[in-house]
Amino acid sequence: MLQGIGSLFTNETDFKRLLQLKEIYEQTKGVINSCQDTANLVKSIMLEYA
To answer: pLDDT tens for residues 3-47?
Structure first.
């Protein structure tokens, strides 16, 4: 994820597009973190009732 954001700042020349893509990366990171939290919760519930 950080590598993708880093490449934006080195390769993208249109500032408006840069900001749009940066926002998309940040939102994607938030979604991924939420999925990981949900997976951890499901795992702990499964272990508790196993």
So the answer is: 766 776 677 778 888 888 889 989 999 999 999 999 999 999 999
Q: Alpha-carbon distance 39 to 44, whole Å?
A: 9
Two structure tokens written together for 47: 């272990």
14 to 4, 23, 28: CA distances (angstroms) = 16, 14, 21
| Calpha distance 41→21 (Å, rounded) | 30
Look up tokens 């408006």; give the residue: 16
Q: Is the pTM of this model over 0.85?
A: no
**What is the spatial distance between Cα 45 and Cα 40, in angstroms, rounded to a whole number?**
9
CA pair distance 45, 24, nearest whole angstrom: 32
